[in-house]
Amino acid sequence: MVTVKQTFPKLSDGSINLDAWLTHFRRYVQLKDITSIKQAAEFTRTASLGLTTFYGQPFLEQGLEMADILLDMHLDADTAASAIVIGIARQVKLDHDVLKKNLGESITKLVQDVLHMDMLDTLQARGQIQLDRLRKAFLAMTSDIRAVLIRLAERTCIMRGIKNINPAERARIAQETLNIYAPLANRLGIGQLKWELEDIAFHFIHPSIYKAIADFLAEKRIDREKRIAENITLIKTHLDQSGIKATIQGRAKHIHSIYSKAIRKAVDYQHIYDFSALRIIVSDNESCYAALSIVHQLYQQIPEEFDDYISHPKPNGYRSIHTAVLDYNGKTLEIQIRTEQMHDEAEHGLAAHWVYKETEARVDARITLLRQLLAWQTDLTQQAPAQLNLQLNDTIYVLTPAGDIIDLPVGATSLDFAYHIHTQIGHRCRGAKIRGHIVPLTRTLQTGDVVEIITAHEGAGPSRDWLNQHAGYLKTSRARAKVAHWFRQLDAEQKIEKPSPEKQKLQPLPHASTPPEQHQMSTSSTGFHVAGVDDLLTRIARCCKPIPGDAIIGYITQGRGISIHRENCRSIRDEISTREGRLIPVAWDKHKHDHYYADIEILAGSRENLLKEITALLANIKIDLVSLKSMISHKNNLTHIFITIKIENTTQLKQLINQLHQLHHVIDVRRVHT
Questions:
Q1: How many C-beta atoms surround the C-beta of residue 321 within 10 A?
Q2: At 308, which helix (H) or strand (E)?
Q3: pLDDT band at 579, cuts 50/70/90?
């Protein structure tokens, strides 16, 4: 496991000797002015007296350890100073004015940028899509990439220090590290942190497997080191003879990478033979290829293991030549060849790009590289990267109350959010809450907003004002299309209901629940009053499944009696304009009691035991469940549940819908209409 525990110089009373620590930094960190670092350290020492992190490390020690990591990545003094103060700023909730007074505007802004991402720590992303959105959100929530690097440094310190906390919580943090932080470090090209985070997390999640691989490597250590030394001597001799100045070092194989490779190749880790690896570091690109030629002259190459990441860099900007050969003992030897700058970038990633002074042409190339590094987003600001400023300006990431992350275009409103969740939620939307505060539907959302939609009663519809572009209700074309479709349907229905000159005989249908006096109502044998007809065969239509309390209409079928529909059934609305003579008023027989089928759709955040809670609720209130079907939408990680139940009337149905709404993570419940 790669662990680097910082030992700090101490005074006689056991406190950290800040002067000695700063002197230590002056020796190897190329910073002209470390005043801000000293101020941050002294401020943190005073503000954090007696306080520790959740795993027991004093806040000052954690801050200095983070500064070590970031300064080793060649970041600036303000970044190190912000890292030193971030822990105590979060712990005691230091406000903007206090930070600005003691540390200045630049550090204060960076600290608050880091704190802004804290809300993402509480999320439990479910599924690959949600994980991907969560990683994107970490980048999108900050305008300064240094804030992301501070979070990575902080997570590294946490992983180094949580050995003795509750095992279950330790495993959760480790899994989160593998899911979010290690991939983020990899995306930014920071190999130094990626490997450390992966190895420590793997150690906590799979301790027995980790120990087995570590023990296996320890057994082979002496032979491996001897073999590495022999090959270094051989290669160095031939490089010197060719006039190529190079540094050659053995390269440690990380335990998590060995495990991952064994899984990928479907073999036992003992059958991974490339534990031995070398790294050749030269001065320039030309020397890389010259060294490669010498290596291939000395050893038998394994062609399928060759990769030229100098000519074709990885998406995260990584550059190096990789080759694998068979040494004189017939064993595999991995070799990497790169320049000093490539090596620094591979270890320190994004931060290393600001170390090298280059021409303006190189600045443009660097911006292109940043776009590759941050491939989760499609656009970056055109500002020079020397400003360390990152604007991810095409997508925002907002959250549902259940903690699911939704991606929307910049400028999207709370009404856009409602339609993204579900069309019916959009239609019924009447308000929204952002972090518990009611906001207008035109409120433009920001990354990190927690949005709760307030809906009207079932059957409510949108407003025509929502389609007015100048009103600012809707940004997304998807939501506008849904609203426009709703009004097209409404206009078509109103056109059907309005009598045309050639069909003046058509009159509005009477409301069947209160039949007009001019119709003589007779009772059918199946529980309906039918206008003017005795003892007709009646049956419930399968398309709309009316139940007592619904307004109904009868349709005279050919040879199958009267089919009973809801008045707003779409199939009946179609018949009004074509077969008006076959519609007949009907009403429920209030003295006859029976059970009827009803279809319900439930929209909920994905979570365990939801189906169990729904079936338990139905059993408790003695409603029979006829069928149940559920599916998870991979687009938004929501669960759609469709149930068919036996019900007595609309009153009982409304009570059930209200109770279903009370279940945790349920977003919407509605009776399915046709």
A1: 22
A2: strand 307-308
A3: low
